[in-house]
Each structure stands twice: as structure tokens, then as C-alpha cells.
Design brief:
CATH topology of the largest domain: Butyryl-CoA Dehydrogenase, subunit A, domain 3
Oligomer: single chain
Largest sheet: 4 strands, mixed
Bound molecules: coenzyme a persulfide
CATH architecture of the largest domain: Up-down Bundle
Strand content: 5-15%
Distance between the termini: 30 Å
Number of helices: 11
CATH class of the largest domain: Mainly Alpha
Shape: globular
Radius of gyration: 21 Å
């Protein structure tokens, strides 16, 4: 057993860290305050190969392994959780399913653009009445003479306003349950696609999250991803990989909160000593560091399983649950260590708490992750 990162993984980590420190940290508080989409940073991430990290070089990707991917995402989230999820969605929910299920036409005309960063992608699954129960979606596509006509609505679309193209799952056979769903790629400027007003969110405020209305949206047959009826399988495959990205986001936030807490505890003097000299604070720091280390090992293990070709859905669900809950907990502890200052926008820990909470909710709530884990334990799948 070897816990060291390979030379390439370490190089990816260092590149991501430098990028986060130099390009993301200077404007992160301002983007959060003004809800500014990090367009410039996303473009540069594309140039670094970080928008298609595990996509093969043949299709414009960087060809990294999954361990490199989660290591890079942790570094980005440690500084800027908003930019991390924009990158994670493009990699996990957009590129990954197209690489696994897409035809050569899809790979050449869509995956390549997403992987190089020429295009930004968004993933459309959830609807007003179907969230955890994804199979209850109502949006549908019907066959037309030369393609498909899609109608319906989707919501909670990360990057839905700033993206160039959607990967969308909808019904194609209303009588076939989850087997009657299919996946399509739909360029954002396709007539009939209406983008709603961005949500006013607690955290990840530099991302845009919108609803979509689709009115007689026409796409050609070639825009179908995989086979007709594959939609649910494609969606769950994408989400397995997405959960690694959300876990990395939680881990990065937790690591960032720990570092802020250490720094503050050394600077803040009370009773004539830095508060880092007090047992109560030291215990908090020790507990935070222990949970962060455990979260990292769990996530790296899940990523390693994916790279080794083993099943990884249960481990991805465990990593997502644990890393996200550690993120919220560490952000709260970091605020406690900062005292009243931590409750203000003068320090980054309040933003970290607001950003952390969503990691327990999106890409499958932690309650859904526990269903997945328990089914595996009980041999029910
Ligand atoms: N990868 C690929 N296929 C999978 C899978 C996975 N991880 N998990 C299940 N499947 C397949 C099953 O094998 C089954 O297909 P077959 O009948 O051909 O074997 C099919 O998918 C349906 O599985 P299941 O009966 O388990 O579906 P359920 O409706 O019970 O749903 C959960 C399972 C709850 C796990 C799923 O709906 C889910 O993950 N929901 C959360 C959705 C979500 O994350 N929403 C937020 C989106 S934010 S972008």
C-alpha cells in the first residue's frame, strides 16, 4: 500500500494550488458578495486542461486519472467553492457521461468542446416535482421526422445561464418508467430554450443556478446520447462521478476552514497568550484535522477504485456524505474559534459555512447517499 501521490498527481496538485492562490483567492470574497460568475477563471481552467481532466487526449481532455481529478478539485475548493462546482459539473456530469456513452459524433462535436474549455456545460435532471425521485420527471421528447421535439421544465441547473450547452435527461416513453428516459445534448441557443432568473442562494453565490423551460425544442437524432432508453443509467453514472466532485468540494472547504482556524488562533491574543495555547482551541484544531484526514483518505480510496476499474458507487456515496458533513462541521468550528469576528464578512469562514451546506444537498442529498450505501451493505442491488 502506497499513500504517496505519483509525480503526475503531485504536479496536478501543485498546478491547481498555484492557480487557486494566484487566480482565485484575490477576488473570491468580491465575487461572492456581488454574485459574479468567474468567467475568466473558468476560461483559464480550460487552458490548463482542468475542464476535461479525465477525458482522453483523443477527445481534447487532459487524460489524468481520477485521483488527480479529486486532488485538483480539493485545491480549488479550498479557496473558491463556487469555481470548484462549475468545474466539477463540467467534468463529472457533462464530460464523463459523454465520454462513456456518447457516439463518435457526440464526442467530436460536443465532448471535445467541453473538455477543452471552449464550451461550458450544464446538466439538467431535476424538475419542480422530481428531485430525489429522479424517475418521476415529466419533461419529454417525442420523435419527429428528423429528430426529437422536447418540452418541459428543469430546475437547479448549475451554470445554466453562463453555459453554452446542456446535457438533459427526459422521458421518451412515458409508459416505460425509468427505462423510458433518454439523454440529449442541447446547445443553449436552440430556439425554444428559455433560461429563468438565477436563484438567490445562501452560498456558492458566484455560480448561477437557474430553471429552464423547453418549448418545442428541436434537436437532431445525432444529439441523443447513448441509446434511446439509456437516460436513467446515464444519469446515475454521471452522478456517481459527480459525487466525487462534491466530496472534493466538501473536503477542500474543510481544509480551508482548518487553515483559517490555525492562522487565527496563532494571531488572536487573549489572557496574554495566543488562543492556540489554550487546550479548548487545540482540541478543536486536532478534531478538525483528524476528520479532514479521514475524509481525504475516503475520497482518495473511492477515486482509486474508479481508476482501478472497480465498482465505486458506494464509496463515492460514502465520500460524499462524509466530506460534506465534515465541511459543514469544520466551517462551524472555524467560526467558533474566530469568535464574533468569524460571524462577519471580514473573515472567510462565514462564506465557507454558507458554501459548505450545499454539499450535503446537491447531486443527491445525503439521505439518498445513505440509501445507496445501505442497499450495498444489505446486498439489495
Ligand atoms: N449506475 C448505473 N445504473 C444504476 C445505478 C448506478 N449507480 N444505480 C442504479 N442503477 C440502475 C439499476 O440497476 C436499475 O436498472 P435495471 O432495472 O436495468 O437493473 C435502474 O438504474 C433503477 O434503479 P433503482 O430501482 O435502484 O432506482 P430508484 O428509483 O430506486 O432510485 C436512487 C435509486 C434513489 C439511488 C436514485 O434515484 C438517485 O440517485 N436519486 C437521486 C437523484 C439525484 O441525485 N438528484 C439530484 C440531482 S442534482 S444534478
Amino acid at each position: 500500500m502506497d499513500f504517496t501521490l505519483s509525480e503526475e498527481q503531485e504536479m496536478v496538485r501543485q498546478t491547481a494550488r498555484d492557480f487557486a492562490e494566484n487566480e482565485l483567492r484575490p477576488g473570491v470574497a468580491e465575487r461572492d458578495a456581488n454574485e459574479t460568475f468567474p468567467a475568466e477563471a473558468v476560461k483559464k481552467l480550460g487552458e490548463l486542461g482542468f475542464m476535461g481532466m479525465v477525458v482522453s487526449e483523443k477527445w481534447g481532455g487532459a487524460g489524468f486519472d481520477t485521483v488527480s481529478y479529486v486532488v485538483a478539485l480539493e485545491e480549488i475548493a479550498r479557496v473558491d467553492a463556487s469555481t470548484e462546482i462549475i468545474c466539477s459539473v463540467n467534468n463529472s456530469l457533462v464530460c464523463y457521461p459523454l465520454q462513456v456513452f456518447g457516439s463518435d459524433y457526440i464526442k467530436d462535436n460536443f465532448l471535445r468542446k467541453f473538455a477543452t474549455g471552449e464550451w461550458l456545460g450544464a446538466f439538467c435532471l431535476t424538475e419542480p416535482e422530481s428531485g430525489s425521485d429522479a424517475g418521476a420527471m415529466k419533461s419529454f421528447a417525442v420523435r419527429d421526422r428528423d429528430g426529437w421535439v422536447i418540452n418541459g421544465s428543469k430546475n437547479w441547473i448549475t451554470s445554466g445561464k453562463n453555459c453554452d450547452c446542456y446535457v438533459l435527461v427526459c422521458k421518451t416513453d412515458p409508459d416505460a418508467g425509468y427505462r423510458g428516459t433518454s439523454t440529449f445534448v442541447i446547445p443553449r441557443d436552440t430556439p425554444g430554450v428559455h433560461v429563468g432568473k438565477p436563484e438567490d442562494k445562501l452560498g456558492i453565490r458566484a455560480t448561477d443556478t437557474v430553471s429552464l423551460t423547453l418549448q418545442d425544442v428541436r434537436v437532431p437524432d445525432e444529439n441523443l446520447v447513448g441509446e434511446h432508453g439509456d437516460g436513467f443509467k446515464i444519469m446515475l453514472t454521471a452522478l456517481d462521478s459527480g459525487r466525487l466532485g462534491v466530496a472534493a468540494q466538501g473536503l477542500g472547504i474543510a481544509q480551508g476552514a482548518l487553515e483559517e482556524a490555525i492562522k487565527y488562533s496563532k494571531e488572536r491574543v487573549q489572557f496574554g497568550r495566543p488562543i492556540s495555547k489554550f487546550q479548548a482551541i487545540r482540541n478543536k484544531l486536532a478534531d478538525m484535522a483528524t476528520r479532514v484526514a479521514a475524509a481525504r483518505q475516503l475520497l482518495h480510496y473511492a477515486a482509486w477504485r474508479k481508476d482501478a476499474g472497480h465498482s465505486f458507487a458506494d464509496e463515492a456515496a460514502m465520500a460524499k456524505v462524509y466530506c460534506s458533513e465534515v465541511a459543514t462541521w469544520c466551517a462551524l468550528e472555524a467560526i467558533q474559534i474566530h469568535g464574533g469576528y468569524g460571524y462577519t464578512k471580514d473573515y472567510p469562514v462565514e462564506r465557507m459555512l454558507r458554501d459548505a451546506k450545499i454539499t450535503e444537498i446537491y447531486e443527491g442529498t445525503n439521505e439518498i447517499q445513505r440509501i445507496v450505501i445501505a442497499r450495498g451493505l444489505l446486498g439489495e442491488k
